Amino acid sequence: MDIEMIKELVTLKNIEEVLKEYRSFGPLPGILLPMLEAFLPFLPLFAFVMANAAAFGLWLGFLYSWIGAIAGSLLVFFLVRKYGQKRFFSFVSRHRKVKSLVNWIERHGFGPLFILLCFPFTPSAAINLVAGLSRVSTPQFVLAVLCGKLVMIFTISFIGYDIRALFHQPVRTIIVLIIIFILWLVGKRVEAWLKVKPALLKER
Q1: Are 146 and 114 contacting, i.e. CB atoms less than 8 angstroms apart?
Q2: What is d(CA 12, CA 52) in angstroms, rounded to the nearest whole number?
Q3: What is the pLDDT of residues 64-80, one digit of tens each?
């Protein structure tokens, strides 16, 4: 079974049927599916998130998708951070475009990671890999994943739960944009605090 065949099988309708069939397992399928996307980037995360919202409701569907997406991202990041010097990762890190992206993330830290992770069609698997290869601090990455995935997962869950509301109730769309700005602002403040804290510890 090749990737194209898998893509044809992994549709929103089929995912909803799988969630219904394995409903006796509780939230586990709803968490595992988004987590898988971090390791298999050709899988449609947006379809998993929308199916969760339809199957479990807006808030539970969002929570299960968020937990799964965060768990997958952090697992990839820590695996790459630990085994980054192995042959495969060493080959990847020498690629010109990967090196430039690594340098860019190292220079800017939280900001670009947060923005990239807010968008549902950004290749998050690539971001997790590059972040793991870079020297960006673990707290910065964890913060960016928590905030960025929150915005992205909630937005898709909202669309999947009631797509008509985007057109009939634009106030909700404005609220989502305000949340994105607030989370970005809070993230920058926390990032500044994380940079100051080591300096304070050295002074002591």
Answers
A1: no
A2: 10
A3: 999 999 999 999 999 88
The structure tokens listed for 152 are: 């992205």
Structure tokens at 70: 């965060």
Confidence check: pLDDT of 61 > 70: yes
Q: What percent of the chain has pLDDT over 70?
A: 63
**3-state percent helix, strand, coil for the chain, nearest multiple of 5:** 85, 0, 15
Phi, psi of 26, rounded to the nearest 5 degrees = 70, -140
- Dist. CA 32–CA 169, nearest whole Å: 32
Which of 147, 148, 120 has its CA nearest to residue 44?
A: 120
Q: Are 12 and 50 in contact, with CB atoms under 8 Å apart?
A: yes
Give me the residue label for tokens 């430039």.
100
What letter represents residue 151's amino acid? V
* Both tokens assigned to 108: 């800017």
Reference 44, options 79, 93, 8; nearest CA is 8
- DSSP structural state of residue 24: G
Q: How far apart are alpha carbons 180 and 114 in whole angstroms?
A: 10
4 CB contacts (<8 Å, ≥6 apart)? none
Considering only CA atoms, which of 137, 100, 132, 131 is closest in space to residue 113?
A: 131
DSSP E strands, the chain: none
Quick one: tokens of 11? 């549709």
